[in-house]
Structure formats: C-alpha cells, structure tokens
Design goal:
CATH superfamily of the domain at 37-58 and 70-433: Sodium/glucose cotransporter
Mean pLDDT: 81
Radius of gyration: 23 Å
CATH class of the domain at 37-58 and 70-433: Mainly Alpha
Shape: globular
Distance between the termini: 40 Å
Strand content: under 5%
Number of helices: 20
Length: about 550
C-alpha cells in the first residue's frame, strides 16, 4: 500500500519536473535565462534522492527505523550527515557572501559555528546518546517530569524548525528565480513536495543518506571551486588578499574587524548564539540517536568537526576570491550590485572561474543543500509533534508505534504546507534575522535545559520550565523590538532594544531563572528529581543502569 502511494506521488511530481525543464508559465518578475545545465543536474539529484527514499521506505519497518535509522548508522556516516545538516545554504552562500561584502568580519559566523563542536563532542554527545531514544527531550525527561518538559521542548523545537524552514524556503525560491529562470512559487512548492516525500516515506534512513550525498557533493564542489580560485592567484594567499584590498571599497579595512559588527556587546551576543545555539539545534541533536553507541556518537562529532572546519576554510577562499574575480567580470553586476545579492557571490564565482557547466553544478549543489536541510528540519519537527507531544503528552505513552509513525507522517505534511505558505508570505524579505533568532531560541531554551539536566543535580522541572519559557519569550521580544525588525522591517525610527542579537540576554535570563527557581523549589517532586540524578548519571556515563524516567 505504501509503495503504491509513493509511486503515485512520484507520478504526480513528474509534471512539476517537466514544468521546470520547460521554463514554467509566464510570471511578472524578470527572471534570468533558463540554465538547462543546472536544471538537468538538479533533476538528476532529485531522481537519485527519490530512489534513495524508495529504497529507505522498504527498510523502514519500526519506530526506531523511522526516527533513528534503527541505530545502524556508523560514526563516519553520521559525521558526514551531521556536517550536511550544519552546512546549509546559509553556510555555503551566506558566509562566502559575507566575506565577499565585509571581509574579515564575515569569518565571525564560521568561527562561531565551528567553536561549538568541541563543546558538543566532549560534553554532550555520549551522554545524549546514552539517555535518549529519538529526540533530545527524551534525555531531559529522564529524571524530570515528562509532560511539561516535553511540551516546552517541543514548542522550542517547532519555533526553531519553522524559523529555519522559512529561511531555507526563501533561499530556495531566490536561487531558482535568479539562476534557473523559473518562478519563485514553483521552487517553493517543489521543495515542499520533496521534503514531505523524504520524511514521510524514507524517515531517518532516507534523510541521512540524502545528507551524506549532499555533504559529499558540497565538499567536492567547494574544493574544486577553491582550487580554481587559488589557481587564479598562483596559489598565493598573499596575492589574493593584496588584490582584494586594492579592489574592495573598504580598502585595507576589509582585513580588519569592526566593519560588520562595531560594538563588543553585539559581537559577544552573536558569538553566544552561534556557539550555544548550535549545541541546541534539535535536528543536529537528533542525529546522535542514529548510531549504535556513545563511542560512535563521539566519533561522528569528531568527523563532522573536521569536515565543517575544512568547509569554512574554503568559504574564506571563495569570499576573498570573489572580491577580485567577480569585479573582473562586470556581466555579473547590475546597477544595484551583484545579481541576486551578495549571497550569490559563490554562485557567480563558479561561472567566473569555470564557465556555465560548473555554474550549473554549483547551482544544483546549492539547491540540493537546501533540500537536504529542510528534510532534516521537517523530520525533527514531525518527531517533536508525534513522539514528544502526541505519544508522551496527549496519550501518556498509551499508543502503538504504528500510530506514532502515522502521526509523524501527517505532521510532516502539515509542516510542508506551512513551510510553503510561509515561504510565499516572506518572499523578497530579508530573512537573515530568522536564522539568528532560531539560533537564539536554541541557545535560550534547548541548550540550558539540556546541559543542566546532564550536569546539575539541583535542576527541577519547575526551574527548567520557568527558565526555558523566559528564555524563549526574551529571545523573541528582543529580536522583535531590536534594530532588525523594529526599524528595518516595521519602519519605526528607533529600536526599543538597542542590539541586533538577543542571545546573550535571553540565554543569561534562562540560566538565571532556571537556577533561581530550582534552588527555591522545596517540593517533594524536586527531591525525587534530585535523587533520580544519581541514576541518570550512571546511565549517561556508562549507557547502563536504572531505566525509566521520573513520571509525575
């Protein structure tokens, strides 16, 4: 039955792919000429990933298969998948674009994200794998009251997922519109259909292998692009930087900090969001349950750290190389600057160094990057709805595995429709602040509760719920009343909250409230939760010990 449904959806999808190849219908926006090379490569990737989804669907029989690939992913495979999850379009296009426009300051985003991985590897990976099953809320609710903790964790997860999805969907629409010469609406709908297919039928098995293939293609494409860029400068970094300084409007200042972020509070707050937000991203944390044991979990983070670090070195080369090479190819520039914005710098750079064929490959890889990331995000959001909310909050565990997976498939469809709708609503908007808000929410809700549940005996349910709620509300309030939304989007003259990045304040508030409320909690449940910490500690370190969570 499931195979017939999957086949029917594939048949329904084929007219959309034919529509893509033909250029679609007329639209009011002015689009670039159709790039058949990019479209052909993209269709090859879509076809390959749909075959993987069909293969994975035939091997997805249990809840563990659907949510965690049956724990059968090796550390090396999971390391590539984690790197694929983290190396989103924001990393490939956004960081290289920031280096292109701002120089040295663009490295803040890459360094901030990279610094988080040792934190995850040494403090979280093994314990999270030993305590949880499918979501990070499993680990937190091991000794805390399951219903309020899972409710808060699911809400935090859904906020992060939706904010991230909006940015990815808008990025997909813009990329298709600028480079493929196709309508924005087509790109949004196509991504929505594909992400629902990946998650609904292939589950974590399909999502993992899509990420592995995408990460491999992205690393190969970026390596070739960086090699070709360096060949233009005789493989001399000194020459590349010197020519960039000579061409860039900021001159020598392009090699100095302060151009993008001028005050230390904003820089510190951005760093907090990137470092601790990465350690709280639900779709990243979910990957630790796909490996067979804690040792493989740590191995996967070690491999991901190396791959991500190498990738960010390549974005530096791409960014500074674009400053010089794109300026030598004025056809990429219009009266308003780089066609498609600074985020298209890496794409146009590929054409500058290797022509249309390589442009098509890099464009297809960039779109594949978006597809893979939205699949991981959707699975994470669907898991929060089905496993955390439906199975453990509404049904209190009295539900069959088959029903839970069925609800998850329904949830992925709802998230797909919602992502398409929000992608269309935010068309043409600057959605960079949504990614930062997603990191801020992850740093202010997920990370404090998760790290304190693992390492602090005094944490209580009341403290975790109060602090997580405060962190979520403060993060949203500061972002809405800050310069990005209040002034640039809503049009007010002066921001109420003076800083662009709220994570420093929201995460500090969350930790303070969690600790304060937990210390003041003298209830019987607090005493039981403290006692349960000793059982949790044994299990988190050894993977063995008392089973079960505190339920009350």
């Amino acid at each position: 039955m499931r195979g017939r449904i999957f086949g029917g959806l594939l048949v329904a999808l084929m007219p959309m792919l034919s529509f893509a190849a033909s250029g679609g219908s007329s639209a009011e926006v002015v689009r670039a000429p159709i790039n058949m090379t990019a479209i052909s490569m993209f269709m090859v990737f879509v076809g390959a990933t749909l075959c993987i989804t069909w293969w994975a669907a035939r091997r997805t029989h249990t809840t563990s298969d659907y949510y965690a690939a049956g724990g059968a992913i090796t550390g090396t495979q999971n390391g590539f998948a984690i790197a694929g999850d983290f190396m989103s379009a924001a990393s490939f296009l956004g960081v290289s674009g920031l280096v292109y426009s701002s120089g040295y300051d663009g490295l803040i985003y890459s360094v901030g994200g990279l610094v988080s991985w040792p934190l995850v590897m040494f403090l979280m990976a093994e314990r999270l794998r030993n305590l949880g099953r499918y979501t990070f809320a499993d680990a937190v609710s091991y000794r805390l009251s399951a219903v309020p903790i899972r409710t808060l964790s699911a809400c935090g997860t859904l906020v992060v997922v939706l904010l991230y999805l909006i940015a990815q969907m808008v990025g997909a629409g813009t990329l298709i519109q600028v480079l493929f010469g196709l309508p924005y609406e087509f790109a949004i709908i196509l991504v929505g259909v594909l992400m629902v297919l990946y998650v609904s039928f292939g589950g974590m098995i399909a999502t993992t292998w899509v990420q592995i293939i995408k990460a491999t293609l992205l690393l190969i494409g970026s390596s070739v692009l960086a090699f070709l860029v360096m060949s233009e400068f005789d493989f001399s970094f000194e020459r590349m930087f010197s020519e960039a300084i000579a061409i860039h409007p900021n001159g020598v200042a392009v090699m100095a900090p302060g151009g993008l972020i001028s005050d230390p509070i904003s820089a510190l707050s951005l760093g907090v969001a990137l470092v601790f937000g990465t350690a709280g991203l639900p779709h990243i944390l979910m990957r630790f349950f796909t490996v067979p044991d804690a040792r493989e979990a740590r191995k996967s983070v070690f491999i991901a750290t190396g791959l991500v670090g190498y990738f960010y070195l390549l974005t530096v080369i791409m960014g500074f190389g674009a400053i010089v090479l794109i300026s030598q190819n004025p056809e990429f520039l219009t009266s308003t600057g780089l066609r498609g914005g600074n985020n298209m710098a890496a794409i146009h750079l590929s054409q500058a160094v290797a022509g249309n064929l390589f442009l098509g490959f890099i464009s297809a890889v960039a779109f594949a990057t978006i597809l893979a990331v939205v699949a991981g995000l959707t699975l994470s959001g669907a898991s929060a709805i089905s496993h955390d909310l439906y199975a453990n909050v509404f049904k209190r565990g009295e539900v069959s595995e088959t029903e839970v997976v069925r609800i998850s498939r329904y949830a992925s469809g709802v998230l797909g429709v919602l992502a398409v709708f929000l992608g269309m609503v935010f068309e043409g908007q600057n959605v960079a602040y949504m990614v930062l808000l997603a990191f801020a929410v992850a740093a202010s809700v997920n990370f404090p509760i998760l790290i304190l549940s693992m390492y602090w005996r005094g944490l209580t349910t009341r403290g975790a719920v109060a602090g997580g709620t405060v962190g979520l509300l403060v993060a949203i309030a500061c972002m809405v009343t800050g310069p990005t939304v209040w002034v640039e989007i809503l049009g007010y003259e002066q921001a109420i909250f003076p800083y662009k990045y709220p994570a420093l304040f929201s995460m500090s508030s969350a930790f303070a409230v969690i600790v304060g409320v937990s210390l003041l909690d003298r209830s019987d449940s607090a005493a039981r939760e403290a006692a349960a910490f000793d059982q949790q500690y044994v299990r988190s370190v050894t993977g063995m010990g008392a089973a079960g969570a505190v339920q009350h």
